Each structure stands twice: as C-alpha cells, then as structure tokens.
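Exercise 3.2. Students should predict the tertiary structure of the chain below and write it as structure tokens, then compare their answer with the key that follows.

Predict this chain's 3D structure.
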Amino acid sequence: MRTHNRWQASDSIHCSGCRLHTDLCACALLLPMPAHTRVVLVTHVREMSKPTNTGRLALACIAGARLIERGRRDAALTAIPCDPDSQPLLLYPGPDAIPLGEWKAAQGSNAKRVTLVVPDGTWRQTKRVRYRIPGLSQVPCVSLPAGLPSFYRLRHAADSQRLGTLEAIAHALRILDESEIADRLMHVFRVIVDRALWSNGRLTADQVTGGIPAGASQDGPRNPQFRDSRGRS
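Answer key:
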C-alpha cells in the first residue's frame, strides 16, 4: 500500500522537488518565469505534503509567487499581500463570482496589475478560504469559463471538470494576456502528470508529453491487464 510518507525528503527513491521517481525527475523544467500578474497561493497545510499537489509546481514556475499556509493551529492567519497599485482578485467559482474575462473587459485601459489569490486544497478546504483569511471577504471573486477540460488524472474528483490548481492558474493567466507563461505551466503540468501515469502503467511511453528520460523504469503497473494469473504485478 502506498502512503504519503514515502514522498518525504528522506525517501531516496523520489525527488523532493517534483515528487517523481528520481529517474523521472522533471525539476529541470521548474524554472521561474516572470509574470505581470502577482500570484498568491493560499494552501491548506495538509495539501503541501501530498504528492499530487500542483500548487507547489506553480510556485516554482512563477517568479515572485507567494505562499500563504493555513490550517496550522499554532499560527495566526496572514493577510493577503497586495500593493496599492494592484487589484486583488480571488479565483474561486463562488455564487457571486464574475467571469474573469468579463471583469478584464470591463477594466479597459484602466486595468491595474492583478494580484491573483488562488485557494489550493480540497473543495471543502478552499470554500472556507474567503472567510478565514483577513480581508479576503471584501476581495472580488472571479471565475473561469465553464467546461474547461482537465488533464489532472492523478486524483479522482466528483466533478470531472474540476481543474488542478496549476491548470486553473494557467487558464487565468491566459485570460489576463499572459499566454507565454500559461503555455509553459501547462507543458510542465502535462510532463509531470504523464510521467507519473507512465510510472504506474497507465500510459505507454509514446503517450508521455516530452517522452521518457533515458534509463527510467516503471514503478509497477496498476492496470489489471498487466497482472499474472496469481494476481501479482
């Protein structure tokens, strides 16, 4: 049985950066790119230790991205850092959320630099963020277009259209006219997800974005078609 403990830094089999097997390491792709939009990730403390978390990948790929952790009983909650010349927006599909594209169009040439606040965690955790972080309840809430496809196949969601955190950030940045970094984020996302799926037998090598590093080996396929008659993989 696999547990989250095997992904800790003390595990010599897995990279502590990208969390992939060391022979599949993709850390060379995790290079910070400059963005006009300021990204602030509000992450539940339990989320950052999960191997399937994608918010930490966004932090590594976006220069100046900030992290605020919540859920620690012994720590006070931190207010969102936002300069006076910046417009904070909460990326969350709440009932009062304005489509991000509509918000941008309404600003016209007077648009300020955006501080994009992105909750990261389970849906139960993220819906609490607006009322747990000081000052965030007054921040306008914006949403992404409905029906965006998700390539996040490392977790099973009740709604198949729910996006991984990195995917959501990439889509938001694209709407805010930052297509170059959005493309980069999605490439990193696809590479890491595909390598993880290949490592447990759910993709073939020719289906992996960017290919498989030379010398890499699979972790043991999960697909029943790879098991022998005695049920062993």
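Discussion points: The chain has a mean pLDDT of 80. Helices lie at 55-61, 100-107, 123-126, 129-132, 165-175, 179-199.
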